[in-house]
Description:
The structure is a homodimer.
Chain A: E1 4-9, E2 23-27, E3 32-37, H1 41-47, E4 55-59, H2 65-68, H3 71-82, E5 93-98, H4 101-111, E6 120-125, H5 140-143, E7 153-154, E8 158-159, E9 168-172, E10 176-184, E11 189-196, H6 205-211, H7 217-223, E12 228-229, E13 235-236, H8 238-241, E14 250-254, E15 259-260, H9 264-268, E16 274-278, H10 286-291, H11 297-306, E17 311-315, H12 335-343, E18 350-353, E19 359-361
Parallel strand pairs in A: 3-4, 4-5, 5-6, 6-7, 6-8, 14-16, 16-17, 17-18
Antiparallel strand pairs in A: 1-2, 1-19, 2-3, 9-10, 10-11, 10-15, 11-14, 12-13
Helix pairs in contact in A: 11-12
Bound molecules: zinc ion (4 copies).
Amino acid sequence: MSMELVFLGTGAAYPSPYRSASALVLRTEGDCWLFDCGEGTQTQLMRSHLKAGRITKIFITHLHGDHMFGLPGLLCTLSLNCSTTAGKEQQPVHIYGPAGLRKFLRVSLELSNSQLLFPYIVHEFVPTADQSPTEGMIDSVKTECDGELHPQEQEGRTIYLDPEEKCYTLLENEQFVVKAFRLYHRIPSFGFTVQERERPGRLNVEKLKELGVRPGPAYGKLKNGESVVLENGVTVHSADVVQTSIPGRKVCILGDCSGLIDDAVQRLCWEADVLVHEATLDDTQKDKALEHGHSTPSMAADFANSCQAKQLVLNHFSQRYKPSSLLKDDDENNIMEMKLQAASVFKGNEVIIAEDFLSVGVPIKKKS
Amino acid sequence: MSMELVFLGTGAAYPSPYRSASALVLRTEGDCWLFDCGEGTQTQLMRSHLKAGRITKIFITHLHGDHMFGLPGLLCTLSLNCSTTAGKEQQPVHIYGPAGLRKFLRVSLELSNSQLLFPYIVHEFVPTADQSPTEGMIDSVKTECDGELHPQEQEGRTIYLDPEEKCYTLLENEQFVVKAFRLYHRIPSFGFTVQERERPGRLNVEKLKELGVRPGPAYGKLKNGESVVLENGVTVHSADVVQTSIPGRKVCILGDCSGLIDDAVQRLCWEADVLVHEATLDDTQKDKALEHGHSTPSMAADFANSCQAKQLVLNHFSQRYKPSSLLKDDDENNIMEMKLQAASVFKGNEVIIAEDFLSVGVPIKKKS
Lengths: 368, 368
Ligand SMILES: [Zn+2]
Ligand SMILES: [Zn+2]
Ligand SMILES: [Zn+2]
Ligand SMILES: [Zn+2]
């Protein structure tokens, strides 16, 4: 299965013509999962090769405007698109984000009188008090929804921190497990780890035929790792007829942060195939970055090293850092400097600088 | 005083790379007034020759997302800009819109924990039940704000329809009077008339010197239209030394609509120098336009004729109508057809098709 990350917006704080506000798509064969949805995301989607109608899940790292102000408009436009394929039952779009997202969407859709043509569900995870300075914590009274569901809204879950694992389990399906973990920022922020499940080895049917094993209960036993004794007395071992399994890929996408809350994060991001980390300001601006709850390239690389990530993508750049294609020789804010700053620290394969519309493939892993 | 309209977004329903969502600036010398603020408006402002920091007033025609989803983000970005000129007392930004806008802004800014560096005030006007089908009216319980003001918010007015004039007086200052009037749409929608005040004629000082009139009470009398008898017995008539006054200009900007509520609108828009009217679909799609609460070019021209408007600007086009610069020969949705449809009906000077970044000057009127 092919898998790619497509960066739709790589700018911090606000959208500009050079870097749109935060948005990133993890595309697998049929599906698009959107991570963050800053203002302008729907227009960036139109400019990209992706199909907006393929978005089935949306994950929001935190409630700063540059990460969610595009969401009501995106849902309205998805609805206009899906009206053309009316008739069949629409699957709900699942939206995951910090407590307060449900109210933001409900109020925005209600006051704009937006009637969606598909159902949506907001699952909220509840931050803890150590994720931001006190003034960044919103009173839970203000994040709670009063009143009934929006007409197209279905009841979502409220997810609390797992006190043992120190994370939030958002979704588990046949292919993926997605968890959220806590970050430190001006307001509570989160990262996501998308773990593809290991694909168990298939039976080598040709070899089974050769050996004279007939389809039936023996097949099941062999697939489960057991050995089978044939009528002719020959023992067939599982390892001889079952192909090796393919390990799942791991993609980790962090929201804005200037640090972690606990070392559970390293465990969750351990050996990430791709780790997307913010680097709002360059290393010379570290004090300012920390003051505003942000990271620099070497901070990102340090974290990537601590979890032995294989590939590091820097993202969420202050608008002062123009894309390299627009860089002038005398520009004192040089995005390529940021790449060097991270690369001089990072011990993994490669540091990639995110730009709007950049696609980063996540190749299938070698059989283990 | 120079005056121009700059179209930042001319598309209906949602923003696209060709036509951004609704936004339009009326620029006078120092000030920018923004009419509607669809998603992406702040990025369009950056692409234009206008300075976002010059926006002092914002008017929202109605609460559909394509007219207001860009507002929270715009305010946040204005705040980032104004931080660089900190120190001096910031004037509040006045925002005018239908009931519900205050809640939308308050919830959006509160949940995103946005701390603006300037004060803002939302003045709401209250629609009447005949402005939309029943399902388009929002229960006033849902538009009311509970709780206190946002930290940077100042108490705004709630403005009810003037039962005699059939309009809402939003603002009256030394230069302008701005009124809102009701339109019929899927949800309550409004238009705005911006009436520049007549500039009284100045004294012709050279001629006064020639005639031997000295500065003092005589100047005042002459300016007030009275005659003055000089010491030498000569009578000086006001009309001889006072220049003729300059009539004020009138700009009318209508929100989405498929019709009017009463004929007060014609009176308010009477002899508009520039009238901006929506034309979402072309004349061949009139039934569909009406069904969705929208207008066609000849409907816009009919209304412009009914108030003897001098110039008609068509705006708010379905995204199927590409800008003329991108038009292909075989495109069945031809924006130039829409211009012809309006021009064949319109009795005023000119029909203009709005495009993103088009500027339309409003010339000073001849002295009356
Ligand atoms: Zn951010
Ligand atoms: Zn943030
Ligand atoms: Zn509209
Ligand atoms: Zn509308």
